[in-house]
Give the backbone structure.
Amino acid sequence: MLLVLIDAGVLHRRVGGSEVMREQLDYLLEVALRPAVTVQVVDPDCLAGLAGAFMIAELPNGQADVVHADSPVQGQITSEHEFVVSIRNRYEAVRAWAYPEHVSLAMIEEARREWT
């Protein structure tokens, strides 16, 4: 299962030309339709997400969860409980600002049309 939260700004931030943006949003929509994937767009007023990108890996068989937190200099990978809890709390704070999946997909589709 993959849960993805993306900032609404990335739908409109030009990376490459219009064709590149359309292709990227097409791919995002394609992936978002897979049964084990959920993509949600986060409201641009969410400040909790500005601290940087992160990932949480929930491992099987009772293994400790692992987090990866990004910074402009380097990423950090750890399974230390205090860091995992901190990142998980940040995830929940960001997800509280996320639009429902059906609204998010409509926003991505609308942004894709704007890049034509």
